[in-house]
Amino acid sequence: MTSQQAMALEEKYGAHNYHPIPVVLTRGEGVWVWDVEGARFLDMLSAYSAHNLGHAHPGVLAVAHRQLEHLTLTSRAFHNDLLGIFCRRLAEFCGLEMVLPMNTGAEAVETAIKTARKWGYQVKGVEREKAGIITCCENFHGRTTTIVSFSTDPAARDDYGPYTPGFTIIPFGDAAQLEQAITPNTVGFLVEPIQGEAGVKVPPDGYLSAVREICTRRGILLMLDEVQTGFCRTGKRFCHLYEDATPDILVLGKALGGGVMPVSAVVSRRDILGVFKPGEHGSTFGGNPLACAIGLAALDALEDPALMGNAMRQGERFRAALRDIRHPYVREVRGKGLLNAIELDPEKTSGRAVSEALMAKGILAKETHKNIIRFAPPLIINDDEMTWALDRISAVIRAL
Ligand SMILES: Cc1ncc(COP(=O)(O)O)c(C=O)c1O
């Protein structure tokens, strides 16, 4: 099948809820992917940071193959021999105590919201139906009807009402706004340590530790959504480790699935996740043995300190090289570790045009909003590959 045929089929039979870059991929290995015509590209999106380990990670694939032959799905009606091991491993990896496994990031966010509300009623003593959660402008936490209820992006939110009540939205990056928004009914503050989908918006230094302090002092839960920033993406195991900001509830997904399958989780303390009793929450696939095996293999690989070090070093190189260009159409180059973005002047060019120009040079990246391009390659990218990428990205920007 040619790329044109594949795209035509997708266009005709698939709903148009995405606007992909016009490339049809068929194979991936490490930082590289190939299209159906055999052209090679460097993947600088990594499936929105699900591919922190690169495509076809040998350790993860070997475990996945073994587990496929063994046992894949039991549902939670029965125990399986990997769930407990996975939960212990993930809890320890996060420095927390308990895990509730799910599949997608959005499900984990929903689980965090349910956890905070239940905790609010049962532990904090908030009046029934009154629990409030504070979120931030330009947040992205997923696509469910409840989550889009507190989205400020019209594309994500419009025409999906009636919306779920119980959310207050404050500006991102300003801890004083959180302090003011808290009421006696507030149960939690849900925030991304860096807003990925918003265009890699990095809050001021000290923001996370300040909101941590406020949440502790005011008796509400700090719920950090590290679905995109987690697992070494920003140069540390978790982005909150840049500051003194241990969350009460940590929401994880994407890279936890090793680039193979959806694996997500809420990780928290016993006094918080302990609110759930049998039948009160669940998922047919959450915590399945295949997911647990793959999650364990992914954690083994993600634990390698070289990965974080590489993300930190290559990220610094990336930002320094692109800042050096000083092109008038580039408003800002920003990010942490290997979660970076270029913000372009929307009056002069578009993120889409630049993404397509990058594709023509063998770089796959994707615009977010109209004028921002995110660059998030697999964390295994080596010096030569980064040089290769920077040569091409620089050439595209210089040609603007
Ligand atoms: C911070 C954050 N939370 C949640 C999600 C939702 O994850 P999923 O697409 O797996 O539902 C995303 C996805 O991009 C995300 O970036």
Structural notes for this entry:
The model has no long low-confidence stretch (mean pLDDT 98). The chain has a seven-stranded mixed β-sheet, sandwiched between helices. Strands 1-2-3-13 form a four-stranded mixed β-sheet. With 400 residues, the protein is an alpha/beta fold. Among the domains are: 44 residues, no CATH class; 231 residues, Aspartate Aminotransferase, domain 2 (3-Layer(aba) Sandwich), CATH 3.40.640.10. The longest helix has 21 residues. The chain starts with a helix and ends with a helix. It contains 14 helices and 15 strands. Pyridoxal-5'-phosphate binds next to helix 5.
- Quote the CATH topology of the domain at 72-302: Aspartate Aminotransferase, domain 2
SSE order? HEEEHHHEHEHHEHEHEEEHHHEEHEEEH
Helix content: 25-40%
Spatial strand sequence of the major β-sheet: 4-10-9-8-7-5-6
* Helix segment tally: 14
Instruction: Calculate the mean pLDDT score and round it.
Output: 98
**How much strand?**
15-25%
What is the top-level CATH class of the domain at 72-302? Alpha Beta
So, the CATH homologous superfamily of the domain at 72-302? Type I PLP-dependent aspartate aminotransferase-like (Major domain)
According to DSSP, the number of beta strands is 15
Terminal Cα separation, in Å?
34 Å
Helix and strand topology:
Blueprint: H1 3-13, E1 25-29, E2 32-35, E3 40-43, H2 46-49, H3 58-70, H4 83-94, E4 98-102, H5 105-124, E5 132-136, H6 145-149, H7 154-157, E6 167-170, H8 175-181, E7 186-191, H9 207-218, E8 221-225, E9 249-252, E10 264-268, H10 270-273, H11 289-302, H12 305-325, E11 330-336, E12 339-344, H13 351-360, E13 363-364, E14 366-368, E15 372-375, H14 383-398
Parallel strand pairs: 3-13, 5-6, 5-7, 7-8, 8-9
Antiparallel strand pairs: 1-2, 2-3, 4-10, 9-10, 11-12, 12-15, 14-15
Bound molecules: pyridoxal-5'-phosphate.
Pyridoxal-5'-phosphate binds at residues 48, 104-106, 109, 140-142, 192, 196-197, 225, 227-228, 253.
